[in-house]
Structure formats: C-alpha cells, structure tokens
Amino acid sequence: MAKNSAVSAKRQAGNQLKALLITADPAFRDELRSLSRRGLILACLQLPEGGEETDPVVRATRFMVRVLAERIEQLGVQARVVASGRRAGVGVGPNIFSGMAALRPEGVSPVRLVSDPVFGEVNITASAEELSSVAGVVAEGTGFIGSTALPDVEVLAGIDVRRASVPGVRIELDLSRQLLVISGNSSARAILAANLQGMTTAEDGGHLHIDYFPEHPYLVEGSVSIVVNSPHGGMSAG
Q: What is the pLDDT of residues 125-140, one digit of tens each?
C-alpha cells in the first residue's frame, strides 16, 4: 500500500505541475512546451532560485514548479525503495504517506497553530522541514496538516488546504472544526507558498506577518491574519 500511495501522490504532483504550467507566463511555458515528461522534470529541477525576474507571480510560479519537480523525484525514489524492499522480502509497514505532505523525519516537530483572539490572528510555529511541507501542500492546493497540542494552550486542530477557481487566497477559521482553512487559485497559492518556504531559511529569526490590505498581491478581503514564526528562533510573535 505504501508504494501505491507514493505512486498516487507522484501522479497528483505531476497533475499539479501541469496545471501550474497551463496558467504560467506564456514565455516561460514555451520554454518547456517541447520537452518530454522526463525532460520537463529535469528542466524544472534546474530552474535557478531567484534570478532576474521581477514579477512576483512569475517568480513564485518558477519557484513552485521547481518544488513540485523535487517532490515528484522524491516520491519516485520512495516508490522504488518500497518496491525494492518487497522484492527482497523486507517487511513494509502501514501507509506512511499522507496526501501530498512530505514524510516527517524523526525528531521533526509538528506544526503548532495558536489562535490569538485579541489580535485576531493565528500564530504558526514549525520546524523548517514541517514548514516546507506546509508550503508544498499550499502549492498543491489540497491536503491537511495536523497541529500538535500544547500544555495549557488552546491550539487549532490543523490546516485544511483547498483549491478554488476564483482569484486570490482566502484564509479563514472554521471554528466548528477548529481548523485554519486556506483556499485559492494556483497562481495566488504559489505566492503564499513561496512566502512560507522563504521563512524556512530565515536564520535571522523574527516572524512574517501575512495580513490583508487593499491591493494585496494575493490575499482577499476578509482573510484572517497569520504570523509565521522563524524555525530558527528569534523574537516570538506571541
């Protein structure tokens, strides 16, 4: 079952990559149009970080295309490892793949989600690996990231990510299920995912405020504010 889950997740990532390229900048899309499936993955893996592109949507799209290509490679390796283990007679445990979220290495702390009713925002604290998983799920547009309990602190149960056809990203609280719900179209989710991924390397500490304001590049009006704490320590947002 683990191999089937990895293959299914790889297929989903491939579909998400295709969907992202369909909505991508035409010039960027034309660069990849004539490539084979394997050639496309290799080309996406070689996309440079940053570059001279100034358009935030194009930069975010290129970034998430590379992230999805890396995920496809990772899942392919996982499927082959499981298959090799079965051929060698090695026992394979229960399904360890959950949706499109990356595997959680031993010792990696789960996400912690604390809703602050005073400031009307949600504080997100996670390791760099887990925050990268959140960014991946946001880019893919479907998945669930569970939150871990804290002593004497009321936390949300997790993050529910959904796709939407309307432009922009909406972040809201589902109080009945105690969830932070993130929904949006692919290009807007790509920018949010890039912001989250960027915090995984913010070694100077501090935190990132994501708040709606008029003409925000991707948040829609009425979205709940979130505060993403640096995985590398520094001043707490809470």
A: 998 888 888 998 898 8
